[in-house]
């Protein structure tokens, strides 16, 4: 049978390792988080997406069961958090500083969405010495205007109008996911190139080759009237064009034709099975 499995690109391991190195230079900074469980949830979200450096500015006590329970398999991130008295001190060593907010004000320019931010950070992190920190504000009112002024790159997560406020760990996960995708998952796109190629529309040449292949088979088995084959063939053409078949679908149909041809030549004419063929459904090229 045809193998449609999407296999990793040859350099997948190299990309994953490069992403790991890049993400080691990215930190998440929580400014005055109020809930210990939220801090634990953030630690878990970070580790899900390959991030391990957590900064806490004037946090609540997080060395508690609630935080540890929410930081499933991410206790190392939680307990390794760096605590700072001010946001200024926390972000001081970083080259790229990002603030997040859901509020739009005259002094706030919404420069980035999570996706465009991830693309920007990926470019900056390509420089081996560059480090970045993404700052998230308090659960109840986020970062202050003064704190956003410290982080010139501003990111807003688009949400539905029904409810625009995200849980702290949800906000971290959205941005961390986009960054992970940008840094570590291009190989999935490349590995899926053949699959996308199969999904492209079948071109006219492929379709005509299918008709050239199937018409003599339909004549041979008696489905078409030898004196007027076009009567049915026109209807078949109309059906095929109406279906707007993809490249892979035409390949499957041509595979069916190839197996029909083999059957007619090796079984039907001989009157018995004189051989066995592996039916792989691949058809013509």
Explain what this protein looks like in three dimensions.
With 285 residues, the protein is an alpha/beta fold. It folds into two domains: 12-190, Alpha/beta knot (3-Layer(aba) Sandwich); 200-268, Helicase, Ruva Protein, domain 3 (Orthogonal Bundle). 49% of the residues lie in helices and 9% in strands. It is built from 13 helices and six strands. It has a six-stranded parallel beta sheet. β4 (96-100), α6 (114-125) and β5 form a beta-alpha-beta unit. The longest helix is centred in the last third of the chain and has 22 residues, at 247-268. The chain starts with 11 loop residues before the first helix and ends in a 17-residue tail after the last helix. Mean pLDDT is 84; it is low at 1-10, 187-191 and 273-285.
Quick overview:
Helix content is 49%, strand content 9%. It is built from 13 helices and six strands.
List keywords for this structure.
disordered N terminus; Helicase, Ruva Protein, domain 3; alpha/beta; 49% helix; 13 helices; 285 residues; disordered C terminus; Alpha/beta knot
First and last CA, distance: 16 Å
User: Helical element count?
Assistant: 13
CATH topology of the largest domain: Alpha/beta knot
Instruction: Give the name of the CATH architecture of the largest domain.
Output: 3-Layer(aba) Sandwich
SSE layout:
Elements: H1 12-23, E1 26-31, H2 36-48, E2 53-57, H3 65-70, H4 75-79, E3 82-84, H5 87-91, E4 96-100, H6 114-125, E5 132-136, H7 145-149, E6 153-155, H8 168-184, H9 186-191, H10 193-199, H11 204-220, H12 230-243, H13 247-268
Parallel strand pairs: 1-2, 1-5, 2-3, 4-5, 4-6
Helix pairs in contact: 2-8, 6-8, 11-13
